[in-house]
Amino acid sequence: MKIGILGAGNIGAAAARLFVAAGHDVAVSNSRGPETLRELIRELGPQAHAMTIADAARFGEVVLLAVPWRSPEALPQPELLRNKIVIDAMNPYRPDGGFYDLEGSTSSEEVLKRVPGARLVKAFNTIYYVHLASRGRNDLPLEDRHTIYVAGDDAEAKKVVAHLIEEIGFAPVDTGSLREGGRMQEPNSPIYNKTYTAREARQFLLDLEAKRA
Ligand SMILES: NC(=O)c1ccc[n+]([C@@H]2O[C@H](COP(=O)([O-])OP(=O)(O)OC[C@H]3O[C@@H](n4cnc5c(N)ncnc54)[C@H](OP(=O)(O)O)[C@@H]3O)[C@@H](O)[C@H]2O)c1
Question: pLDDT digit string (tens) for 141-197?
Fold first, then answer.
């Protein structure tokens, strides 16, 4: 699969390494331009390409958003993402480390307003990049792997993202719609930055639901 990665920092570079190791072709991009990504490309090998943000968006059948949420200008023209499977790994951090008050909305719903028509899946946002880089275990059964949560309204898109997550050694756990599942995945939620296995995560979500009912 061709995966465009917007942002080549902690999360973008870690994801690029994992996707390449799983046999995918990646395009990485950042704010400073492709020439600043030479070292990363050398490390990743021939399956990786350095591009501008717009070209990486064009390149990807799946596109990962791994830039700061507070910088909408980092995203490409919405037309470049229309009808594409887009993974939103971003969290609504302010520059001071606090979170924006979204007044009842969620960060991925706000992202969808910026890129209407994208097949948006919220994933990779709850996992610390060091865990993403180090805790993938293809040798374990799915239920015993570290969880990466997925939320979204497009079932097919979610399935594709879930498969990618499995290929890189993690276990996808579906939290629900972009709104309700997405809210569950927001920073400071009970599952944010927790190191649950899929078995533990599913049980935790069931318990949470039972408590709410
Ligand atoms: N760090 C984590 O553990 C973690 C975990 C889950 C989710 N996230 C989320 O993932 C996103 C990235 O986090 P990170 O820790 O990877 O950040 P990071 O290391 O600071 O990397 C940010 C990347 O975004 C690029 N970027 C910034 N502003 C841009 C702009 N205006 N146009 C184009 N590219 C721009 C940067 O490019 P330059 O370097 O060229 O400026 C850099 O490649 C954030 O939304 C964060 O909330 C982070």
Answer: 999 999 999 999 999 999 999 999 999 999 999 999 999 999 999 998 999 999 999
| Pocket perturbation via mutation, ligand 1, pick of 51, 67, 99 by most ligand atoms within 8 A of CB | 67
Question: How far apart (Å, rounded) are the C-alpha atoms in residues 42 and 37?
Answer: 9
Q: Does residue 7 line the site of ligand 1, with CB under 6 A?
A: yes
Q: In testing the pocket of ligand 1, which one of 31, 55, 64, 189 has its CB within 8 Å of the most ligand atoms? A: 31
- The per-residue pLDDT for range 126-142, each reduced to its tens digit, is 999 999 999 999 999 99
The domain segmentation of the chain, as residue ranges, is: 2-212
Q: Domain 2-212, what architecture?
A: 3-Layer(aba) Sandwich (3.40)
pLDDT digits (tens, 9 = 90+) for 5-14: 999 999 999 9
Write the single-letter amino acid at 169.
Answer: G
Q: Can you give the C-alpha Rg of the chain in angstroms?
A: 16
> Which protein residue's CA is at the shortest distance from atom 27 of ligand 1?
67
Ligand 1 within 6 A of 32 CB?
yes
CA gap 148, 29 in Å, rounded: 23
